[in-house]
Structure formats: C-alpha cells, structure tokens
Description:
elongated
Amino acid sequence: MVSFGLVFLIVLTLIVIAIFYVCVILDFINPSALQVQLLGVLIILFGVIVLLAFEESSGYGFTFGLIGLITGSFGSFREPQKAQKEKVD
C-alpha cells in the first residue's frame, strides 16, 4: 500500500515537471542545455530514492528514472539559446 507522503511527493514532482515543460514550450524560460541535463539527473536520483525507500513502489521509482532520462535527453538535443545567436550576428 502506498503511503500518503509518497503520493503527495509524486504528485508534487509531476506538477513541477509539467510546469517546466510548459514554460519551456511557451518560451517563458530558456534554460541552457546543461541546466536541463542536471534537472534530468536530479529526477533520476529522486527515482532511485523512491525505489530504495519504498520497496513496494518500485514502479514509481522506475517511472521517475525514465522521466529523468527523457528530460536529460531533451536537454541534449535543444537548440542553442536565442541570445547566443544574437551575439554572433
């Protein structure tokens, strides 16, 4: 059985990740590729912590690991920032 604290933590993390993706897509924020990759690593580490702390919730930890991997890959394939393009021109 999943504890209330784990459910709250998972929902809060998913909301933050969704807000991050929406802000990036709508160009409210423009993080560098390194910042997005570091966010992916942090999400992976959160998945590992969930995996180790809650034995019956290994699916949640694995899911967060995949979300972190996708986020880190997203950061690797981002286009250079617009500000750097303007400095070059």
